[in-house]
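queue> pop job 88
queue> type: inverse folding (structure -> sequence)
queue> payload:
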């Protein structure tokens, strides 16, 4: 398939957004409610002010707000696409179509993240500014690095979702697996509670998993928690996880492809 074909696939999530505007509106309202509740929570935690782990209340509110908003961009649902295709048998048709299946998932996910997610994140962020004050990036370099890190986070989450989706070739049902991965992601990504507030043992576990790439790394860069060598090391860690997960997803896909061919005769 040509590049134009993949670009058309990338437009599908945005067209879906336009079709189901009410659902998208409710998603934005839900994100705004989370922003408000997190502001109330962290304001209560900080009490009279001061800094915790070198992070002030305005920095923490900025962290929590961006965490809620950027979720529209970094989230991925390709696992449900794979599950549906496996369960209804349409995956066999994808194998003979003039495009690579994993590439088609990537195109769809980029459309979901950059077009659909970007628009919803922008609308939610503008609305959130009515009741929260956001700090600018710690430095201009941090702002650029945050953008790069956020893009890498999209890649990491896409690959995690892809590997999880390919498990449907063996399990047919992903609800339980998705529940486990979602829990680990919420807890160990730093999206709900920054990793520096977690017990040491939990932080050590998070350092060996890819989930911190989804929220902790980009947000820590934005507020200036990661600077200099620590910032570049964090970006390299995200890139390394993309490489590892890309290899894993390709190997699992090849095993799944052989499974379809054998079962199909």
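queue> result:
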């Amino acid at each position: 398939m040509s590049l134009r074909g993949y670009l058309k696939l990338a437009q599908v999530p945005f067209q879906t957004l336009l079709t189901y505007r009410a659902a998208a509106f409710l998603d934005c309202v839900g994100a705004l409610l989370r922003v408000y509740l997190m502001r109330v929570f962290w304001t209560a935690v900080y009490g009279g002010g001061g800094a915790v782990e070198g992070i002030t209340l305005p920095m923490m509110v900025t962290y929590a707000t961006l965490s809620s908003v950027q979720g529209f961009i970094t989230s991925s649902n390709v696992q449900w696409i794979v599950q549906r295709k496996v369960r209804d048998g349409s995956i066999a048709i994808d194998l003979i179509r003039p495009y690579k299946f994993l590439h088609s998932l990537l195109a769809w996910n980029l459309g979901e993240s950059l077009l659909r997610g970007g628009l919803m994140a922008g609308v939610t962020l503008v609305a959130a500014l009515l009741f929260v004050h956001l700090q600018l990036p710690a430095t201009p370099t941090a702002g650029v690095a945050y953008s790069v890190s956020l893009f890498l986070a999209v890649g990491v989450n896409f690959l995690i979702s892809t590997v999880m989706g390919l498990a449907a070739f063996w399990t047919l049902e992903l609800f339980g697996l998705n529940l486990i991965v979602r829990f680990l992601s919420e807890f160990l990504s730093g999206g709900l509670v920054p990793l520096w507030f977690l017990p040491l043992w939990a932080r050590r576990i998070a350092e060996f998993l890819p989930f911190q790439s989804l929220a902790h790394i980009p947000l820590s860069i934005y507020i200036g928690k990661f600077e200099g060598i620590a910032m570049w090391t964090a970006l390299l860690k995200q890139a390394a996880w993309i490489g590892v997960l890309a290899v894993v997803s390709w190997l699992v896909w090849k095993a799944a492809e052989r499974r379809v061919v054998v079962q199909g005769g």
